[in-house]
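pinning this so it doesn't scroll away 📌
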Amino acid sequence: IREIVQIIPTEEASILSYARGLMYWHARHRFCGVCGGATVAEAAGHERKCTAEACGTSHFPRTDAAVIVLVHDGDHCLLGRQSRWPTGMHSTLAGFLEPGESLEETVQREIFEESGVPVVDVRYHSSQPWPLPGSLMVGFMARALSRDLVIDEEELEYAIWMSRDDLLKREESDRFRLPGTFSIARRLIEDWMAGHIPD
């Protein structure tokens, strides 16, 4: 699905993502989380119901909230790399919301945990459903208070500060590439390169 969504029309990619999200949910919710009984699909696959007579709990697909953030200090932005990504891929930083957190708090915590960079001026940009496995990526831009990096090596292979000029002049190669144009990460990077920072 990661490769296909880059080459098919947006409407078809949305349908494919929706189907992938439902299939993933069905495969992992065959049993009731309340009593452990078997569940069956109902409501055209948009609900699973516990078959245990004493329970009968209805379960619905869940979407996990995650933040994805373009961190900048004006003329430089922070990009990271995970070793499991395709060769040369660099992207913005991301992480999942924890119980009791606002999205803005998640941005500040995740960025600091992964890179050691404190951020302020957290601004919403856009969102994107992400069916791998079942998330809503909520995109933000945030301003760095420092460019000193302390990398969490379990999360990132490394992180680098890139200038706007370097990114504008870049050539895609096995040493450096950005996420595909279908991704919110790419939209965040391109909007920052164009000087479009949310108020």
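📌 and the second one:
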Amino acid sequence: MHLARLVNLLEIISVAGRPLTAAEICSITDLPKPTCYRLLQTLLSESLIEDSSNDGRYVVGERLIRIALLGKSDVDVRRVSSPLLKAAATKFNETTFLSRFRDSKVEIIHVETPDDPSRAFIHPGMGERPMHACSCSKAIAAFADEAFMEKILAGTLKAYTQHTKTTREMLMVEFDLIRDQGYADCDQEIDVGIASVAAPITMGNIGAIFSVGAVGPIRRFDKEYRKEIGVKLTKLAEQISDAIQLCNVAEVSVEKAA
């Protein structure tokens, strides 16, 4: 019964379309005021709802938004992001890819390649990437909470090539640089001759759940070129973030209408 009431309050706040006061929520649920207030305090303590304006009006909390986004299927994410990735692959004339954070690891879930038949390009493959070596992973890790970052730094930092950063000090310096410039790069850290750059895809205040990147041969992807692409990827990341969140809002609206 207690759980059912908590879920009912979450549903009411989620579909309201505006912040709700405790009095409004009590009126909608017909719950006794002391019970309703206790339930709201429980949801607040777990960051499932929040009073972001400190005016006694409640909205869905960052934790619940994060849960919803993490639970979004790869199919849904690819559907809304692939047109943007394809357009970028054509514009950059380079391979672009989308990665996501899930189960304490980062995986590449979608790749788009350029249409130019004369262009030599690199396909990065799909699946898990090392947290300390790949641009797509570092773009997410640099914006992770302190506990998760410590977990990355405490793990085995395997040297894939002579360019791989394998010490805590080197990675801490790089994470600071990533946060400062807004994107991460990988200079032959996994495979010699291959470089990549990636930007975090942030969702409001809940951090980076996805990242978007580009990859190519080091003869093209020198430091200046990676900087140029990195700046463009930060803008693309904003577009993909908006697309994913709009998709989420649309799904909620459909469920509400049903």
